Amino acid sequence: IVPIFLLLAFALLAGACTALPGAPMTEQMAEAMPEPVPDEITIMDARSRPSPMAAGNGAAYMLVLNGLTEDVQLVSASSPAAGVVELHETIDDNGVMRMVPQPDGFTVPAGGAVELKPGGKHVMLIDLVAPLETGGEIELTLNFDNGQSFTLTVPVVQMDGMPMNMEMGEGETEMGEGEMEMGEGETEMGEGEMEMAATATP
């Protein structure tokens, strides 16, 4: 009797496992990424986390869609809200999170997109002119290698925390428990990085 019950249990378990669909998740992920507008570069979903300290650091995140027929390069960014603005990428180097400056910027493929997001590519705001407070806004300009520039009006919104304890090598940035060292000189960073969302105007 026991072997029969065991066989029935295994059969039910196997049936439940094979019934779990995998396709809907893939479809949902595909649906979450909007299609580029033909012949246009579009900036979407940028936002900024509050940062309580002047002279601290923040980070901008957004989705860049390229509806052109050729690749474009996001080569630089600027903002009156920070003393220095750089393009960075956070990478996992054998279990150590490293924030690496990207002086050449980010390639946005033709007909595709690049997402600047926490734990990945982002715009780094160094030496903030003033604290970033919830409900406020900052101005951010993105520059592309085809000569186009987009100025974003970015709202500051409350967001979840970011991964900490990131290290940086030469020319990189080291982030300890809530702070960051930026090459020459030292700047502090509030709790995690900051994301941004905005309306873009060419």
General description of the model:
By secondary structure, this protein is mainly beta. 13% of the residues lie in helices and 43% in strands. It has two helices and 14 strands. The protein has helices at residues 2-18, 23-32; strands at residues 41-47, 56-66, 72-78, 82-93, 96-101, 106-108, 113-116, 121-128, 137-144, 149-155, 173-175, 180-182, 186-189, 199-201. Strands 1, 2, 4, 5, 7, 8, 11, 12 and 13 form a nine-stranded mixed sheet that branches. A five-stranded antiparallel sheet has the order 6-3-9-10-14, with no helix packed on it. A hairpin with a 4-residue loop joins strand 9 and strand 10. It is globular, with a radius of gyration of 21 Å. Mean pLDDT is 74; it is low at 5-30 and 163-202.
Quickly list its features:
single chain, 202 residues, nine-stranded mixed sheet, 43% strand
Number of strands: 14
Strand content: 35-45%
Whole-number average pLDDT?
Answer: 74
Given as residue ranges, the uncertain stretches (5+ residues, pLDDT < 50) are 5-30, 163-202
